[in-house]
Specification:
The protein has 244 residues and is mainly beta. The protein has no helices and 19 strands. The strands form five sheets. A four-stranded antiparallel sheet has the order 1-2-3-4, with no helix packed on it. Strands 5-6-7-8 form a four-stranded antiparallel sheet, with no helix packed on it. A four-stranded antiparallel sheet has the order 9-10-11-12, with no helix packed on it. The protein is globular, with a radius of gyration of 19 Å. It starts with 22 loop residues before the first strand and ends with a strand.
């Protein structure tokens, strides 16, 4: 008598790459992280891996949910292959078929190590990326387009930049950029004019070791704040009073 054995997939486990920016938890309640050359999408509510996204040829160093809207249906990933990929999530994103590769941003010549994004009120999306090639690149996508362009490259030479954050000056359309790395300084860049280049204005000192993370926020009074984390075991909170 023939017997049929039914087999169902019950659980998928995927480890996270050992990189500072490999994991990112979005407002969609989904966790994205790098698993070797793949991007893994994990659903904490269902307690399972939904899918893995294949596209990189090197270890995934960064996952970053795009600052587009409250749903956060776009996900950036970058890897040791020097590329940045933008993934688009359809519907609720809790099925593999709801994910697709929307864009490939190529320009770095070495591993991409950190990403930060900012969207204007008009829907223009900016992305800042750091790389082991000694550069920070600023990318732009217009509100009515799906195409990306690199609008500025900042050269750092042999200095290693570990982290970057980008936003706009309060009550202004001008961008402000912060970078940090091995020289223990936070470098600030500001647009003097809308659509103009980001210009270096200062290097803030205070940390005693490599700077690993930066994040902008605005307080209830409208002041711009910057949090910085370092290998000196300190987190510093900086408050700006900027003329618009």
């Amino acid at each position: 008598m023939d017997k049929t054995l039914a087999v169902d997939l019950q659980f998928v486990s995927a480890g996270c790459n050992r990189a500072p920016n490999a994991a990112s938890w979005g407002q969609s309640d989904l966790l994205a992280y790098g698993t070797n050359c793949l991007v893994t999408i994990y659903d904490p509510k269902a307690v399972r891996v939904i899918c893995t996204l294949q596209g990189h040829q090197g270890r995934v160093n960064v996952t970053h949910w795009a600052a587009t809207n409250s749903q956060q249906n776009e996900l950036f990933s970058s890897a040791s292959d020097g590329t940045i990929l933008l993934w688009k999530m359809e519907a609720d994103g809790r099925h593999f078929s709801h994910w697709s590769l929307a864009s490939t941003l190529a320009g770095h010549t070495d591993a991409v190590t950190c990403l930060s994004s900012y969207q204007t009120a008009a829907g223009v999306l900016f992305l800042a990326s750091t790389s082991a090639d000694g550069t920070v690149k600023i990318w732009k996508r217009d509100a009515t387009s799906s195409d990306w362009s690199c609008i500025q490259t900042i050269q750092y030479g042999p200095k290693i930049i570990e982290t970057v954050a980008i936003t706009s000056i309060p009550n202004s359309n001008r961008l402000i950029l912060a970078t940090g790395g091995v020289d223990c300084k936070i470098h600030l860049y500001i647009q003097q004019d809308v659509d103009g280049p980001l210009l270096h204005i200062t290097g803030m000192q205070g940390h005693l070791d490599w700077i690993r993370a930066l994040s902008f926020a605005t307080d209830d009074s409208g002041h711009l704040l910057l949090a910085s984390a370092s290998q000196d075991n300190n987190i510093r909170l900086w408050k700006f009073q900027l003329e618009t």
